[in-house]
Every structure is written in C-alpha cells, then in structure tokens.
Amino acid sequence: MRRVVIGLTVAAVMLLVGVAHRSAIALEGAVEKVEKVGQPGTSTSDHDALFALNEDYIRSVQTGDVAWFDEMLADDFRASVGTTYLDREAFLAQTALPVTISNLAARDVEIRVMGDVGIVHARTTYRTLDGEDRSGRYTDVWVREGDGWRAVAAHVTR
Fold first, then answer.
1. Distance CA 123, CA 131 (A)
2. Which residues contact 17 (CB under 8 A, 6 or more apart)?
3. Closest CA to 138 of 123, 126, 150, 127
4. Domains and their CATH numbers in the chain
5. Tens of pLDDT along 74-95?
6. How many CB atoms lie within 10 A of CB 155?
7. Nearest-10 Cα torsion for 113, 119, 124, 126
8. Which of 18, 75, 140, 149 is deepest in the core (most CB within 10 A)?
C-alpha cells in the first residue's frame, strides 16, 4: 500500500444535488489524504490515470460538460443516488441541470486498482443553497477498455 497527500475535490458532485438554479460553485482547495491501494504489481500510472479522471469528472460536473461524460461513461453506465437509480441517458440529462451546491470537497479519498477495474471511494462535504453544511459518500467504478478507462457505475449517499 502506498499513501500520497494531494489536493482533491469530489467525483459525483452532480449526484449530490437536486434540481434548482445554477449557482457559482466555490470549491475549497483542501488537501486530502489519498490512499493508493491495489494488488501487488498494480501500476502507479493506473492510480495516476484514475486520479486525473476523478478530477476531470469533478470539473465536468461543475461545468455541466455533458460531452466529457458522453465520452467517458460506458454504454451501460448506471448510478445510484440514494434511492434513485439512473441509467446513462438519465445521468447525462441530470448533468446538464443547474448545480445547487458550493464549497464541495472530497475527504478521505481512496483509489484501488484490481486488474482492469478501478474503484474510487470518498467522503464529501458541501454547502446547500440555504447555507447548510452537509456531507455524504461516493464510490465510482471504472473499467479499463482498449482505449482507456470508462466509468461503469457511481453510488452516492447524502
């Protein structure tokens, strides 16, 4: 196991929020612990790739970059948000909706690689439009395909 300290915000931001008007998202530049855990012989480059994808995921949520998600989500992508279950098309539609939180940050991030599967776990903190501080957890599952990693699943709790 290898531990690294790096700055990180949360994946699956969009899934933490409901639907309302778009508000500016002020992100905390928090430095958080990231654990790189994998089977013996897993590549540091796999962890680095998943870390970068996690950052792009966050950026894409914050900017409503549906095109990035369209490229990075597997055809059979699914997301569970609380008791709501979204297929790929519903997730893309939700991504295009206005964001209703601010001060979003990931805490206690763990990236695991097991062969051609990568799993990202984290705790999240954010602020609602009415100023209430909240937290949740997420897990994103990535699968290595011929041309790179694709997100196949996301699970978010609030």
1. 19
2. 99, 100, 101
3. 123
4. 2-157 (3.10.450.50)
5. 999 999 988 999 999 999 999 8
6. 17
7. 110
8. 140
